[in-house]
Write a structure and sequence with these properties.
four-stranded mixed sheet, globular, Nucleotidyltransferase, domain 5, alpha+beta, about 120 residues
């Protein structure tokens, strides 16, 4: 029987396999969710570089948000990430939910990024 960490790693690998197969050169919006905060970054896999980042720990958001572990914080992080991506000239990305379900905070971050102008 697999440990929870091993199952999570397998889900991540399976998700990234399909993302790389369908990305066709588009950058990847990767999500990391901890118990206290949520992080998002846009990565160019061809060059292996992070292009844009945003998290609930950013100074702009930390002052406005009471805590970084709710759906409202995830939504605001998604919007901030989209604004920074648009400023960097990125409009289309592939969404990488990692091993997480598209539900709750992960879904809120994705909807915030869409509202901010990212297409995926």
């Amino acid at each position: 029987m697999l440990k929870p960490e091993e199952r999570f790693a397998r889900r991540c690998a399976r998700t990234r396999y399909w993302i790389r197969k369908r990305a066709k050169g588009k950058p990847r919006l990767s999500v990391y969710r901890s118990n206290k905060h949520i992080y998002g970054q846009i990565i160019d896999d061809l060059r292996g570089r992070t292009l844009v980042t945003a998290s609930s720990l950013d100074r702009m958001l930390r002052e406005e948000l009471g805590k970084g572990s709710d759906k409202e914080a995830a939504h605001r992080v998604g919007k901030l990430l989209a604004e920074r991506a648009r400023a960097a000239g990125i409009e289309k990305v592939v969404f990488d939910r990692g091993g997480y379900r598209y539900h709750g905070r992960v879904k809120a971050l994705a909807e915030g990024a869409r509202e901010g102008g990212l297409q995926f």
